[in-house]
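Intended use. Records like the one below are meant for learning the mapping from a protein sequence to its folded structure. Do not use them to infer anything beyond what is encoded.
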Amino acid sequence: MTERNTMALPCVAERFVELATDDEVLAFFQGVRGDVLILGGGSNVILPERIRQPVVSLKHADINVEQETETSVVLRVGAAVVWDALVAWSVAQGYYGLENLSLIPGCVGAAPVQNIGAYGVELKERVLRVRAYDRQLQRFVELMRNECEFAYRDSVFKRHSGRYVITEVCFELSKQPRFVLTYGELQTLQDSPDLSLQLVRDTVIAVRSEKLPDPSVIPNTGSFFKNPVISKRAFDALQFDFPGVVGYPQGHNSVKVAAGWLIDQAGFKAKQLGAARVHDRQALVLTNTGGAQQHDILDLAASIQSQIKSIFSVELEIEPVVIQEQQQEPRHD
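Structure written out for the chain above:
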């Protein structure tokens, strides 16, 4: 499994299964009652040296146009489709809605679990429904957007980890220009005479490539910590002590704090502990410098969490899923 996780942590699975059809999914899960790890691109997991439960990889990789009008299109996409390949394909087709999510690693089936988001867009705004095998009901189900209970980096699939085996995701995209250019570097495109889907995608790719290391070159899982959401009152107090703190109002009297800023200010950028290192250009990213194991990454993460709590009175939550050698519940990643 070492080459199947983007942190390149050494790992061996005792049993690895690939399932290519719904019939295979049905047959396998009706015969398995214990822990199962559903693994996509391996971009959001911190693996142990050995995985004792079965590891399942889905091979559903079709992209189909389910419904189309003059103004919109509904796509039905297999769980195994590489996420950025879907974004590239939708941009080439002239479908608006996913371009801000360019270059996010992983597969389509994992995207709803984390409710991936970037540059002012969250997956929940584009999902129409999700098809999955429900291990509790022992049948396939389709969950509409509201049933997915999406929240910041969260969903019903994450909260009920292991119950749902996502096989397809349906997206509703626009065929008319609907750009979201209110976040970060994309604001500079608002008055561009050459504004297009491809320009937005190229800009997002350029910005992400500059800030985030390529996992194939420097092993990592992308953003390692969630941006903490705190009350406005708590943020005002934090801002009084640290005037430069970066925060984004969320409504409901809450503010999302930039975790990267906190980690950077605490002096962790480029800090190394064993073979685990904080990236020198993006403090949110932990990397494997070579030979790191799960405990190395988690020790560095714990050190960061402890210091951020001590300095800023803010708790950081790890974003990737930490897989233990013996899980009590199956995991979706």
